[in-house]
Amino acid sequence: MTAPGVFDELVGQDEARRILAEAARGTGMTHAWLFTGPPGSGRSTAAVAFAAALQCPEGGCGACHTCRTVLGGTHPDVTRVIPEGLSLGVDQVRGLILEAGRVPNAGRWQVLIMEDADRLTEAAANALLKAVEEPPARTVFLLCAPSTNPAEISVTIRSRCRVMGLRQPPAGAIADLLVTRDGLDRREAELYAAAAQGHVGRARRLATDPQARAKRHDVLQIPRRLTGLGACFTAAVELIEAAEAEAAGTYTDQSAAEKEALETALGKGGTGKGASKAARGSASALKELEKRQKTRDTRAQRDSLDRALVDLAAFYRDALAAGFGARVNPIHPDMAETTRAAAARLSAESLLRRIDAILECRKAIEANVRPRIAVEAMMTRLWQS
Amino acid sequence: MAALEPIRLILGDDEFLAERAAADYVRAVRASLPEGEPAPAVNRISGNDLNTGAFAELTSPTLFGGAVVGVIESGQDVDKDLAAAVLAYAEQPAPGIYLAVCHNGGNKGKGLSEGLKKLDVEVVRVPKIKRQPDRVAFVRGELRDAGASPRSASAEIADTIIQAVGSDLRELASACAQLVADTDGKITQESVAKYYSGRAEVSGFTVADATIAGDTAEALGALRWAVQVGVDPVPIADALAMAVRNLSRVAAERGGAAQLAGQLGMAPWQVEKARKQARNWTADALAEAMRVCARLNGEVKGGADDRGWALEHAILQITRLSAAGKGSRV
What we know:
Shape of chain B: elongated
Order of helices and strands of chain B: EHEHEHEHEHHHHHHHHHHHH
Strand order of the largest sheet of chain A: 2-3-4-1-5
Largest sheet of chain B: 5 strands, parallel
CATH architecture of the largest domain in chain A: 3-Layer(aba) Sandwich
Order of helices and strands of chain A: HEHHEHEHEHEHHHHHHHHHH
Number of strands of chain B: 5
Distance between the termini of chain A: 54 Å
Largest interface: A-B, 21 and 23 residues
Strand content of chain B: 5-15%
CATH class of the largest domain in chain A: Alpha Beta
Strand order of the largest sheet of chain B: 2-3-4-1-5
Number of domains of chain A: 3
CATH class of the largest domain in chain B: Mainly Alpha
Strand content of chain A: 5-15%
CATH topology of the largest domain in chain A: Rossmann fold
Largest sheet of chain A: 5 strands, parallel
Oligomer: heterodimer
Radius of gyration of chain B: 27 Å
Helix content of chain A: 55-70%
Structural class of chain B: alpha/beta
Number of helices of chain A: 16
């Protein structure tokens, strides 16, 4: 049986497509699902497609009004939460639970999609647990998380969900997608599919955004440039600044628009009697907004930095593989010469130490170490190991 | 003595100095009165509480005759209509009535201060003291006014007092007065140390400088003071990392300080300072020190059970790494 149209976006997940399509028709349906899989495997795509399949009378044709509104994010009975900050707080979750408890307006189900459920705080997870445990009759919870590791999603929530594991889509499948949908030529598509390490969104970004390509290129030049202590710090500054610039580019316009909208709502620029008094109380609301925007920027910065670090680690991984003559596909096929040169010059042990340094740096940043300091320390290790 | 102006504008954002300027004005009024006159009546009112009635009261003569001094504090809070009344009065002040208007010099209530300036009233400026030399000058002036001997009012003594008391002017002024009273005007370094032990303001940078210099004892001492006066471990750890970073970046480069400063985004004096400090260091040691700083950063943000211990441990490691630290290994 072929999966219906809404699942087209789900690349390389044949098993998941089959199970979800069947569930939408009523076989094995349950009130809470947990989508797990490595970043970029399409957890949120799967959740949205599944929501469409649930609402669509045809089981997810992909063409009818219902399917299109769900996929477009405008269906009244599908609430989609994308945490933009570093965490998802209890206040927000309580509000969402109220919304999710309503009887569906038009569709067949009330669906709550929570992307990045691993960012739930402990209190928020407990609040959500109550709802998942005893859900309203026509409500479905669709949660997304990288894995079922207790560090990422609480065991109590996990045990009340049906877990839908997604696998890392094979590079070939991603390349196919890039060729058929974005019209790339085969060679380029394969390069970006490999460089994205199974992350569909990243592959498309590399394929379509020249800035993302330039940044990847810069990051991969770092190992060659680390010739001394000064170079370490220069490279660190550049890496941090690139991340900041990328993060600023992501949200600056949106932040400015949000601020303006709020100011207008609070009556800024009003004249006449009482206008200044009305504006006085609005400072705290603006401050609240700025705080939210700041955590969003911080997260964007960290995400950007994390991508760069993963690319860098993959470079040393390629060098290691080349050194052993292992028959595995390189992650950066376009850097084959440089990685071979690195493999000839550096011992396997020192390459491993460098990969360790990068992974430790990622961990440190997650533990809230100032990114600049963590990256600087990492660079000194990449230089000396 | 020149006739005293009937209106004085005290312009500046230092509350203590403004208060003092107002008191000076009252004293000057008293001094200008002929012998035998009763002491002037002094009325103070805050700009917030000023209304038409209160202002009329402030600028009316007393029943018993004699001068009247009115002081309007925080004149920036005087509302618009009343500011116009004050200005109207200032154009034609009544005889025997003196008025001091304090204003913080900010944009708020600017009409009043600008209006008074236009009327060419006497202006006394009392800006906040921000630079260290100005602060030293202030303390020396305080000491002299309190009657200290010229030798006691030296820059070194003033420096010691500031280090011990902090930068708050009110506290500095009272400390000066107290010291002069306690020592009959002959203040020495020892007498300052006798009454004020310890240091009031130790920042992370003090700790970092001593650490980089390889001075274990000084660094640990400064750390204890800093923790004692309530500096959070996180800025101390950040200051350490910044010191090591500046050192590393400067050590690796050649060229003039000014040029390098532009290139690295540091101030020229930072480059000079880092140059001097870098002599004790090798590149390998600096790289290692940077890693210690990164670990410390994680530890003070919840990675370690005892943040104070983590700081001490890191300081010991870094001072050992510097060549100068090798001599005085603990």
